[in-house]
Hints:
By secondary structure, this protein is α/β, with parallel strands linked by helices. It is built from 18 helices and 13 strands. Helix content is 46%, strand content 17%. The strands form two sheets. An eight-stranded mixed sheet has the order 8-9-7-10-6-11-12-13, with helices on both faces. The chain has a five-stranded parallel sheet with strand order 2-1-3-4-5, with helices on both faces.
Amino acid sequence: MKRTLTFIVLSRDATDSRELSRALGxxxxxxxxxxxxxxxxxxxxxxxxxxxxxxxxxxxxxxxxLKLVQRLVSDCPNTAVICASRECSPDMILRSMRTGARDFIxxxxxxxxxxxxxxxxxxxxxxHADDEPKKRGRAIAVFSSKGGCGTTLIATNxxxxxxxxxxxxxxxxxxxxxxxxxGLKPKFSLADVVENRERLDDALLASYITPYSKNLSLxxxxxxxxxxxxxxxKHIYEIMELLRQRYDNVIIDTPHSFDSVTISxxxxxxxxxxxxxxxxxxxxxxxxxxxxxxxxxxxxKKVRLVVNRWSKNIDLDxxxxxSFLGERVVAFVQSDYRAAVNSINLGQPxxxxxxxxxxxxxxxxxxxxxxxxxxxxSAPSTNGKRPFNSLFRRQSxxxxxxxxxxxxxxxxxxxxx
Length: 417
């Protein structure tokens, strides 16, 4: 990836902002990430984006600007801090240097002076390139080998629970639906990122990602089916690496197949959230998926099972299902058809459209387990009803139980043949 010098500008003077933005944006080899008049926002974004330099216009700011210089020098040691002002007295330049600024830009801008400052910024960036810690956010792939289990809904709402920068990646290249669940109309997609991957920098990558809220963004699936044909497994791996350097959480909504692109994403994920419903076809499909994971060499601690659309009316024994799958269930998400359909129709995640629903409570609990690393294996809440793992009565089996036993036996026989 081509290395570009990235800049953030802080200025409370509109004229100065336009001048600095035009000059930095027009200079070859530079990219302006953002311009703001809010010092706290500039500090927060500088810590997150790690630009090559932050330019602070001292005009109309006084002491707060010099304090910000000190904070940035302390908390972002690999970012050069540059001051600017129309007042260029020796005393002001000296004070800015004493607080830690590496350079000073006099306004109005002199092209030769700006080139010198940019050259010195490039030297500083090269000197600190090896020292810069590589951010590596967590990647979770949400997967089901059978369609209709609710992976897209769960991926979307898991992302919504996060309080730190999170990106949703729609890997359903032929029929992605994440934009519908978020009520977005993306201008760009994964196909654009792949097409321009050789010249990607932070600014270009950010332009291809559609923001939903302060902490959530979407990298949409291609809008045209033919665009997906050019996406290869190696592209997915490269893009996942770039996203993990930029975001704290990368949540991937994967297709229901084991094609090479999906496997590349699963390889890259820290955790694979396997979603199933309690019907025999989904259970058997999940077992086959787990066997494929074993053949791919994934450790079982990387895989987490989640039962979606659970209802207390389903007479299936938890321990029997776990025995059949050879893996324990980490969470149960209760069924709420009306809330789910309403969420989809509104283009709002359940977390927003039904914050008080039981399914939202289950999703928040699941997020706490996954992102808080506090995996506990427990039966779903039954609100005082008999526990899930006692649904099979010891004295006599119901017809539903006999049907499940027979189905699981047929599944076992089928796998053995």
